[in-house]
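Next comes this protein.

***
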Amino acid sequence: MAYRKKIAVLSAAVIVLALVYILSFVFDPERRQSTAFAWLDPSLLVMADGIEIYGTGGVAGGITLLSRKDGTWFFSSGITDFPVKQHRVEDLLNALSRKDVYPLRAVSAEAIERLGLAEESSSRIRIRGGAGLPLLDLLIGGGDALGREVYLRRVGRNEIHSGEDRFTFYIDARPSFWYDLRLFPQEIADIGAVQQAEIALLNEEPFILRRSGGGWIMVGQGSALDTRSVEAWLRSVLEAEADDFGLEPPALVEGSITLRFGDGTTRTIEAGPADEDNNRSLRVLGSGLVYVLTEWTFSRLFRESSFFGE
């Protein structure tokens, strides 16, 4: 009996010690901190000048190519480069370079296949710097049972980690998610700097809105216009975003808006006729970019003179 009691006491002691060890591992901040790391070293961000994003299913899911030129990021379509929302790219790079806890989950070849981390079929984010130097090549696999975390693996390594799903958002994004489709740079979106607006539409006489004192007039018309209506329209023009980028400029111009600023500069946008999908191509003179507007967007910007109270 005494022997059995000793065995029971020793077994209980082993269990208690094991529990203490496990709990100390889980809740010890130093141990948890030791598993925290960033996928991309923050010191390498300044070198990053190319990003390749492979969608769901690897290459078959499509590739997004982003490149940085003279400090500005662009979307590469294969034909031309389109401007992108800079903060979108910065958010992705910050997510990759943010230090966090990524627990090790597996290291086997079987787990790589099972968790969707095979190179040929996995989603992927590759960051390049300098002359094509790979700064990071990260594979993104399937999600956990709750859909809150994804499995992650560096190319060339077998270690599989899991972490908060900050990356699927970018992997599955359409090109328009990245595009900066503003017609005018944000820095000139100052209504007070606009002194005159000239509007020309097909089948209507061109007309001019001109600042006069604290309000606006239509040239050739004596009475003052409603200032709030004119400036609300101006704001919609200065802050306008297209619906997509196009490749061919309008062959025929059916509408134009020219804004004249107090510093003597002008900005002109020209829109072509509606196509079979009820979209219009548009260009901003001097920028070299071609945009696509829906008919609804076009009608909001290219107003007839009656809108201003003629």
The chain has two domains: 36-178, 186-308. The longest strand covers residues 133-143. Residues 203 and 254 are 9 Å apart (CA to CA). Confidence is low (pLDDT under 50) at residues 3-34.
